[in-house]
Amino acid sequence: MNETRLRELLREAPIPGEGAERRGLGMVEAAFAERQADGRSEPGTTALPRLAIVLAIATVLVALLLSPAGAAVRDWVDDVFTAATPRPESGLAEIPGGGRLLVRSAEGPWVVQADGSRRLLGDFREATWSPRGLFVAVVAGHELSAVEPDGTPHWTIDAARPVADPRWSPFGERIAYRSGADLRVTAADGTGDRLVEPRAAAVPPAWSPIAPFQLAYADTRGTLRVTDTESGEELGSAPALAALATLEWAPSGIVLEASADALRVRGTRTAKLSARVEIFPPTVLPLPPGAVLRDAAIDPVAGKLVAAVVEWRGAGGPRSTVLLFAAAGGSRTRLLTVPGRLGEAVWSPDGRLLVAWPDADQWLFLPVGRGRPRALDGIAAAFAPGERTAAFPQVEGWCCHAR
Question: Per the structure, how many domains does the chain have?
């Protein structure tokens, strides 16, 4: 879907409120009929009839906003009129903000350079950057491998069960991954593989941003745990968010937990002498009533902002909004509202957001603060050369964040 399709969706969206659309159309038709009559009686005098149409439309909007369905109509008008997006640029050009993207498609993961050039790494299912982008950890079946960004392989280990959710530690020494229900850790050179947790939940683990070997994860009993992966000692625990889907640990010490219907953050503190990790009670970041949380990500540099992509059903179909929260709780800002579904939100090295818009076949680049938004079109075809139809790809990471 391109800009033309977006306009069609906006035109097709029904006006909520019983009788509102009928009353509005009647007023506009009456104004149009008056313009036609005036045009026939005195050609060339069109200023007043045009003014009548403008006033009629304004009257319709005011009447709608003050009608018994006022609240719903105000939401509808607000959402439609804030759905403005930048004019899309055709094709995958330079990446706003620079850096390199790691993108997963049906063919496998791709490395996208800052100028938009890209390279397919191979027939792998998942991928994650090393801290400085020198290597990529990739997954294929029971295998975990490390390759260079040009696809050159370095090592591979075989696991007993299918591998998923590899995560490279921020200091570069370790890679955590799941093998079935096992949570395991290996050294960055593929040696010293060891078991951390035999009953890990199907959620990607999160490394501490300040302690080299501390790893946070959820187990199948609904507990959030922090473990020293070298000694195996448990350093802290707390009840995890129900139906946890996303777990992140920011440099500010804040841990983000997200599920389909809840978003919350909690602080942590590491004792200097014992290395024990205190996990504080959570703070809920409120979502709009009835909304489904599609993705959430915490600013990986300062750890002070949380981006959330939410979706709900409107009168004309699904609508999506990008929200920005203060990670400490409190303020909430809406960055964008569009018709249709949005995908993942990924933070750039310079503090902007990439938001996937599969329904429009676009990537949206949203500045947080100064700057202008941009949109790149034709994303699916860029990662499926020669294919007539292609699934929309998923952004796995944006390299590399300063620490």
Answer: 2
Domain that holds residue 316: 89-399
- Predicted model pTM: 0.80
Pair of tokens at residue 228: 């020293």
Other beta carbons within 10 Å of 239 = 13
At residue 17, the pLDDT reads 41
Least confident of 7-21, 227-241, 345-359: 7-21
Q: Are residues 210 and 258 both part of a single domain? A: yes
> Hey, what are 195's tokens?
């078991």
Tokens of 308: 């959330």
Residue for token pair 């369905």: 69
**One domain, residues 109 and 250:** yes
**C-alpha 193: how far from chain center:** 32
Is-contact 259 280, C-beta < 8 A?
Answer: no
Residue 341, SS3?
coil
DSSP run (H or E) holding 377: strand 374-377
Which tens digit of pLDDT belongs to each residue from 23-52? 333 333 333 333 333 343 334 434 444 444
Domain boundary among 24, 57, 81: 81
